Amino acid sequence: MASSSTAPTPAAAGDVSFDRWLDEQRRRHHYAVRRAPLDALPGWSFSRDTGDLVHSSGRFFSVCGLRVTTDHAAAGQPPRSWTQPVIVQREVGLLGILLKEHRGEVHCLLQAKMEPGNVNGLQLSPTVQATRSNFTGVHRGRPVPYTEYFTGDRRGGRVLADSLQSEQGWWFLHKRNRNVVVMTDEDVPALDGFRWLSLRQIGALLRRDHLVNMDSRTVLSTLPVQVLADGCGLPGSAGQDDALHSFTEVLSVLAEARFGYELTQEPLPLREVLENATSPWRRTRDGIGRPDGRHFTVLGVTVEAEAREVARWSQPLLAPVPGVAGLLVRRVEGVPHVLLRAQVEAGSLNVAEFGPTVQCSTRHLTERGAHRPEFLDTLLAPGAGRVLFDTGQSEEGGRFHHALTRNLIVELDESDTRDLPPDFCWVSVPQAQALLRHGNYLNVQARCLMSALTLATR
Amino acid sequence: MASSSTAPTPAAAGDVSFDRWLDEQRRRHHYAVRRAPLDALPGWSFSRDTGDLVHSSGRFFSVCGLRVTTDHAAAGQPPRSWTQPVIVQREVGLLGILLKEHRGEVHCLLQAKMEPGNVNGLQLSPTVQATRSNFTGVHRGRPVPYTEYFTGDRRGGRVLADSLQSEQGWWFLHKRNRNVVVMTDEDVPALDGFRWLSLRQIGALLRRDHLVNMDSRTVLSTLPVQVLADGCGLPGSAGQDDALHSFTEVLSVLAEARFGYELTQEPLPLREVLENATSPWRRTRDGIGRPDGRHFTVLGVTVEAEAREVARWSQPLLAPVPGVAGLLVRRVEGVPHVLLRAQVEAGSLNVAEFGPTVQCSTRHLTERGAHRPEFLDTLLAPGAGRVLFDTGQSEEGGRFHHALTRNLIVELDESDTRDLPPDFCWVSVPQAQALLRHGNYLNVQARCLMSALTLATR
User: Span of the secretion signal (chains A, B) (predicted)?
Assistant: First the structure.
């Protein structure tokens, strides 16, 4: 059985090619994920009181009900109201990446990690990817390696970024993870399954489909400018002052949305969502979903894995329809700007965050009368702009089953000064990086695209 | 009857002395506030379903129940859990101050405004102090003047600060107000009841008890450094880099608290708080409170006023025991630093915010066995440091009845390098000002003390 206590491999990358290492990891990390009915997941049950799907420890996460009322995207109509299942995970998780300079280049310590919802088994996760339960041993599994670099005095490392960031607001209620970057001067051996990779290598790996996992991408988006060395991958990046709008004006676009839009979130027993004649959500033998197949399904899996903290477990996963997340980029007097949109999501902690230019599911777009989000056609049309990035990425495999999002970055011509609908704002790349020092400004889709823009479009 | 449509007084201050103007306002703003039982407030009632105290419009605010579980301040003990009444106000309010340069000095347009909970009738409020209901006319009152400077294109004014900031986390659940500062070049007449005051004048008025209201103080705390002209009132202020800790380290102290402390907030029907044998909260003829008199009472008032949007109304108010909020200040190599404490409050939106060094109620401190908060004795002891500020300030009179807080700022000797307990952090004044550009970093007590420090200790 593979173990994290085997002798460390050399700290510097390059002695074994990355692909051979990854193949080796895949061979050694045997695992099997099998679908299972939600009422046959050991440790999980539907609460008698509420119908919520909960774990017997009372921890990890629950699938609950939520009633949402909002006047966002109602276009002058009265506020819309609906009920839906939602994942509630009160605990704040920790996602940490350890950095070290090797031969003059900043390297990140990443891990080839299996998550049950991954479409392809192993993906590259942060140095530490753990819930507080992992730290306190509720999992009753092996200790999580490298946590000592992210807690207490961090073994003398310097913290370069530390913020609580949101996750998918349509699937989670008020979910946040702590995103931390720590630079060490110590010689830190890469345990089995871990590998030091340079930012240049990671940039190249980001261009491969479903390889760098969502947790890594969001932490990488918070890397400070000085670590990115030449700043943004797009040449011509500049200070915050060389921007179309002042930084306060950018903050003000979001404050206006948080003030101006109504968002009422009423937690409900899941039973009231599933047994309500006016709600399309139903529980079937396959899980929880809708007859029209829209949005997502909640299904169960049983996992057997050798190289995780616990060798065998069962859990629910949320299986969404596929989506697209796209960022339009434009230079303004040479300075790259990204087009962000203040976005209200069902489970937002603070009403609104900046999302990318476009963020939608793609399955129903070709139906008659389907709403096509603003700028979607610009993003997808051949020749509308220069395609800087076009890669399939996965959402977090610990909660989501085969959650595939096409990530697109398209650069428009500098002369493309079309009018913007409300809630959209051109934000310079340095301004977006300044926003990323703080929590709850850029949503997870925008953060993942920012990591691609700054690391993979050089 | 005084009306906001009378001819504007000259825009420049100085033609009538401030005190004569304020006396004149007090004479002209007749009002009467009378106590009334909670079940005799027109428009308000206890919900049959929940026992919550609600308004018939479903808007404004409600008094509800809350169960809180937290391991903060539990000192290694198991998490504490309790229930309490709490004010729920879903709507985000707007607090806006309009700025203009007169004769080379930045002036703020403030209003002498009556609030029913004020200990002394009129206090100086922001240019605009309004809920979204005020904008949309749910109050069915007069339109709120000057709102056009804070919405839409702001009549061409420049926005200098715009963030959603928290209010009292022990009394409100997830309450936020939008704090906005706009600079105009227009000649804006001061309507009756309004007055342009220079930052220097406001600094002097902040040293008078209960004159500059809480809403003004919190907006003033977000004034950008360039408006404060010589930066911090304390000479020797410097850039963010001249600080004991890096800005990321400061952010990290708060991220650590948000990650490390558990805070579970379960909204409850108020009935479950008031009719629970293990809870000390009871409804009596006088209102809602505890036999031991601790924390606060909820009482009712009926108001007759001439110069408010509505001439007569009734509402509940939360009447807290008096408190103290204190900030210790120390120079580090000449740069002033404030001692902030990551603080978990019952109604915090995001687990924790930085509070001042000390924040507590004072009524029960002399009882045997009472817990004396850290640094309270340093703050209050004669000669422990140089007293920079010591003024009685009021919390918001629209929600709180005679809520009086002694605001203290004491400067320690530079050589006072005592060890700090967990959650405390020395933050340079420029760093604190950088935090104040963003929401939910400094709580309302810390923000009010920052406005005193930067404006009233020059």
Answer: none
In this structure, what token pair is assigned to residue B139? 């109050």
Tell me, yes or no, if B437 comes closer than 8 A to chain A by beta carbon: yes
B197 and B246 together in one domain: no
* Domain coverage including residue B330: 240-263+321-456
For this complex, say whether ipTM is above 0.95.
no
In tens, the pLDDT along A131-168 reads 776 665 555 566 789 999 998 788 889 999 999 999 99
Interchain contact, B255 vs A180, CB within 8 Å: yes
End position of a domain, from candidates B181, B205, B228: B228
pLDDT exceeds 60 at position B199: yes
| CB contact set of A192 (below 8 Å; sequence gap of 6+) | A2, A3, A4, A6, A9
Residues B258 and B381 in one domain: yes
- In angstroms, the Cα distances linking B329 to A13, B414, B431 are 48, 9, 14
Between positions 166 and 195 of B, the ones with CB within 8 A of A are 176, 178, 180
- HSE at residue B209, side-chain half, CA atoms within 13 A, is 9
> Same domain, yes or no, for A183 and A253?
no
Tell me, yes or no, whether A151 and A249 share the same domain: no
Domain count, chain A: 2
- Residue from the list B256, B349, B437 with its beta carbon closest to the beta carbon of A251: B437
| Residue A58 resides in a domain | no
Best of B159, B164, B425, B440 to substitute, by most chain A Cβ atoms within 10 angstroms, is B159
Whether residue B257 sits in one domain with residue B148: no
Contacts of B252 in chain A (CB under 8 A): 159, 162, 180
pLDDT in tens, B110-154: 999 999 999 999 999 999 998 776 665 555 566 789 999 998 778
Mean pLDDT by 10 residues, chain A (458 residues): 36 64 91 94 96 92 97 74 96 95 94 95 95 62 86 89 98 97 96 96 97 98 85 49 93 95 94 95 94 95 76 94 97 95 97 97 76 92 92 97 98 93 96 97 98 93
Tell me, yes or no, if B132 comes closer than 8 A to chain A by beta carbon. yes
- Do A202 and A455 meet the contact criterion of CB atoms below 8 Å apart? yes
Task: Give yes or no for a contact between B408 and B323, defined as CB atoms under 8 angstroms apart.
Answer: no
Instruction: Test A439 with B350 for CB contact under 8 angstroms.
Output: yes
Cα–Cα distance measured from residue B434 to residue A240, given in angstroms and rounded to the nearest whole number: 15
Task: For residues A223 and A245, state if they share a domain.
Answer: no
Based on the domain organization, do B171 and B135 belong to the same domain?
yes
Amino acid at B341: R
**3-class DSSP state of B172:** strand
Which among B92, B256, B351 is the nearest to A259, CB-wise? Answer: B92
Residue with tokens 């409050």: B345
Strand partners, A442: A354
Looking at beta carbons, which residues of chain A come within 8 Å of B268?
none
Q: Which residue has the tokens 């009556």?
A: B114
Q: How far is A254 from chain B (nearest CA, A)?
A: 9
B414 pLDDT band, cuts 50/70/90, is very high
What is the C-alpha to C-alpha distance for residues A333 and A414, in angstroms, rounded to an integer? 8
Q: What is the CATH number of the domain that holds A401?
A: 3.90.79.40
Give percent above pLDDT 70 in chain B.
89
Residue B249 sits at the chain A interface (C-beta within 8 Å): yes
Of B92, B163, B251, the CB nearest to A437: B251
B290 located within any domain: no
Which residue of B162, B248, B351 is in closest CB contact with A251? B162
Residue A152 lies in a domain: yes
Confidence (pLDDT) at A134: 67
Query: How close B437 comes to chain A (CA, Å)?
Result: 8
Interface contact A439, partner B, CB < 8 A: yes
Contact B248 A437 (CB under 8 A): yes
A90 contacts chain B (CB < 8 A): yes
B248–A180 CB contact, under 8 Å: no
B276 domain residue, yes or no? no
Percentage of chain B lying above the pLDDT 90 cut: 76
Same domain, yes or no: B247 and B345: yes
